[in-house]
């Protein structure tokens, strides 16, 4: 990937000399925005500055607080299930 590829992908690029002068401010920007910056030397990418993300120990509960359950999940449905009727389906029933 050269700097033109990064620009086409919508990734911000910055020269190493500019990065050196603005490092701490850029780190704060990245932490707040979640975006990344590709750092270049002589027009070629040499590094990426990306926000730090903690990886969860387990995926169990990862969406806690993001999903809301509406209603009772254990409550029976008011629908008669075909399997409960005891009727065996024929091939003709399956084609329709």
Describe it.
The protein has helices at 3-8, 16-33, 91-95; strands at residues 12-15, 37-41, 44-49. By secondary structure, the protein is α+β, with helices and mostly antiparallel strands. The chain has a domain at 3-49: YefM-like fold, CATH 3.40.1620. The protein has a three-stranded mixed sheet with strand order 1-2-3. Strand 2 (37-41) and strand 3 (44-49) form a beta hairpin. The chain is elongated. It starts with a helix and ends with a helix. The model has no long low-confidence stretch (mean pLDDT 83).
Secondary-structure topology with pairs:
Blueprint: H1 3-8, E1 12-15, H2 16-33, E2 37-41, E3 44-49, H3 91-95
Parallel strand pairs: 1-2
Antiparallel strand pairs: 2-3
Oligomer: single chain
Question: Helix- and strand-based class?
Answer: alpha+beta
Mean pLDDT: 83
Measure the end-to-end span: 54 Å
Sheet of most strands = 3 strands, mixed
| Beta-strand residue fraction | 15-25%
Helix amount:
25-40%
Order of secondary-structure elements: HEHEEH
Low-confidence stretches: none
Shape field: elongated
Q: And the CATH topology of the domain at 3-49? A: YefM-like fold
What is the rounded Rg? 27 Å
How would you summarize what this structure contains?
The protein is of the alpha+beta class and 96 residues long. The protein has helices spanning 3-8, 16-33, 91-95, and strands spanning 12-15, 37-41, 44-49. The protein has 3 helices and 3 strands.
């Amino acid at each position: 990937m050269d700097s033109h590829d990064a620009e086409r992908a919508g990734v911000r690029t910055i020269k190493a000399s500019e990065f050196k002068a603005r490092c701490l401010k850029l780190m704060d920007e990245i932490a707040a925005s979640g975006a990344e910056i590709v750092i270049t030397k002589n027009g070629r990418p040499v590094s990426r500055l990306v926000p730090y993300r903690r990886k969860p120990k387990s995926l169990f509960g990862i969406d806690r607080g993001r999903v809301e359950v509406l209603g009772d999940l254990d409550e029976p449905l008011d629908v008669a299930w075909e399997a409960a009727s005891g009727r065996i389906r024929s091939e003709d029933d399956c084609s329709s």
